[in-house]
Amino acid sequence: MSEEILSVTDLTKRFGGFTALDAVNVSLSNRERLGLIGPNGSGKTTLINCISGALFNEQGSVRFKGQEITGLKASKRANLGIVRSFQIPRPFRSMSIIGNLLIPMEYAASDRGERGALRDQAMEFLELVGLQDRADENSSNLTQIDLRRLELARALSAKPSLLLSDESMAGLSSSEVDEILDILLALNERGVAVIMIEHIMRAVMKFSERIVVLDAGKIIADGSPDEIVANPDVERAYLGE
Question: Which pTM does this prediction carry?
Answer without folding.
Answer: 0.88
